[in-house]
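@channel anyone free to eyeball this complex?
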Amino acid sequence: MIDRRRFLAGTAGLGLTLPFAARAFAQGSAPTFTPESGASLRLLRWVPFVPAEEEAFLAITQKFTDQTGVAVRIDKESWEDVRPKAAVAANVGSGPDMVMSWFDDPQQYPDKLVDVTDLGTSIGAANGGWYPGIESYARRGDSFIALPLCAIGNAVVYRDSHMKAAGFNEFPKDTAGFLELCKGLQAKGTPAGFPHGKAVGDGNNYAHWLLWSHGGRMVDENGAVVINSPETLESVKYAMELYKTFIPGTESWQDVNNNRAFLAGQVSLTANGVSVYYAALKDPAMKEIADDMRSTNLPIGPVGESVELHQTSTISIFKHTQYPEAAKAYLQFIFQPDNMNAWIEGASAYCCQPLKAFESNPVWTSNPIHAAYAKASASLRPNGYAGPLGAASAGVMADYVLVDMYAEAVTGQSSPEDAIANAERRANRYYRV
Amino acid sequence: MSVSAAPPPRASRASRGSFFERLSQSRNGLGLLFMLPAAVFLLCFLTYPLGLGAWLGFTDTMIGRPGIFVGLENYEYLFRDRVFWLSVFNTLFYTAIASILKFALGLWLAIILNENLPFKTFFRAVILLPWVVPTVLSALAFWWIYDSQFSIISWVLMQLGFIDAPINFLGDPWNARFSVIAANVWRGIPFVAISLLAGLQTIPASLHEAAALDGATSWQRFRRITLPLLTPIIAVVMTFSVLFTFTDFQLIYVLTKGGPVNATHLMATLSFQRGIPGGALGEGAAIAVAMVPFLLAAILFSFFGLQRRKWQQGGND
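replying in thread with the prediction:
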């Protein structure tokens, strides 16, 4: 655990004095919030994937309660259930005061959320600025309707020995080389596997990487559906080639299946959060897998740059709260550098910082496996790129339009062209053409 | 003025007293009074949500945004939506096959349990277990049983040398459909079996004895005595069974979430996916409302097709 003083001293030595000087100045102008008398808060959050992350979060919350007297009750829900619960709370105007939600959830009910522009602006200015991709999830025009909390980094995890046995000394950087590696792994009986089932997180991460790395987009800047493009067709054809190298059964994979298959030694390569590494590390029986495990970013496609979806979480305050000032004070407290650093460190590379000032958190260099996850916030593209975020982008993802498009084509249920046309029709429904 | 306008207090009390008195003496009045709580409950928790759901189906309501009336627009889109029609097919197929299997196996089990077996009570209790276990837990167990890599069924068959690679239970569309049907049948048999067993026990043993004395075979006794007398129970049990199966959600949601490529999406799961995570409350409600005609047809078939048979009242069909 690092404290603020040690963190400042360490980062000053790394040449980061300037941003911190700016932060000190900005903090002087940061808004102050006085919790309402007798205030208490309820936060709905996702069930933690890394126990130490929750411990750190609870410690920060306890510190806030000790300093302000505001009790904060934290309710946890399975991460897929946060969306419906939060949506109901927003709709009926009752329930938790704050929600730690996913992707573009805040964009579905912006009118039900407290404007936190004052917080978003001051915290961003004080901490080197928000990463643009993750910031867009929390913004509505010039306003902040939520505060970006983190990106859950997604990266390729693979067995080093299996890669070498397949004839590769280094992990390929581009999609063509990646396909060759997967073919090599399959030939050695140690195949790769990516989910083509209804996997909200991993399935969407994989599908969006396939699309974006080949230059495809769901919609253009104006929200017009442009999925039916030559680039998308190339990405589908590439997915079909990759699928041939996978372990059988990936059409039914949900979010947990790739972890299980990797940890059981059934697949040698998949993409996941860093939690899969810690699951192997804490089990002595899996020491061999943990020692052999490496991580890297998904390869770069014809588009020429690293582009990934990653899961993102924001934290927002419902308008129905009786204690908006207390809630704002709580959020401000969480984002204080010493607290945010402690939380990021506790999350053991599972949660990637939303603010550039925290790039130098020691967690990213404490273990080589963490390095691939450090860039999640920087390489992140928002859902529904390049269009506006909102109910349409959220709906398209929740209805598995992109995931189904690839699954239809790779399983041979539809031709690539037909699968794309079907995705176009379904997306148009959400973007109301 | 005020004195002349106000009715005498004594008269008011008398009139109130006589009202309650009359009510307490009125058979119809008391009947209405006693039905009132149930009526209020049904209106609040059944009629209102159903009405609201039907209304939402005619709007473009999104989560967090009140909708406007769009007429049949949701239904028009669904009419052209192949995922919706796939879910309709899946729902009908799932309901038909699962209900037939549950009925056949449940009736068979009930007849066995109706015999004088040793440890009869024990077996009757054990049969109920799949029904008692929460659906989500049994669904999770089936999730492992059907896992594409770790299935116990695949493992056993591989150990015995029958297959070389694990069966793709939930990855292949037809395998997935039959797998979820098998899980539903496993879970639903106890309800059918125990209910039919209760029906079987109401059939007087003397009828069977008389028929046996007349030389009737066991098949003839089943066909001419058991089945006719059991039909009213079958009608009720199968109506409920069909309704439960048609509206199944948990099993599918845990096992496949509608995959692979929507091959196991039922109307209920598609309605949830579009309405709640997808935010399209209007469209989700329209899918849910589209289930109503099918449900009504199932109920009407059960009641008019099975229950009101003339021969049950001694006439001919």
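from a first look: Residues 2 and 51 of chain A are 18 Å apart (CA to CA).
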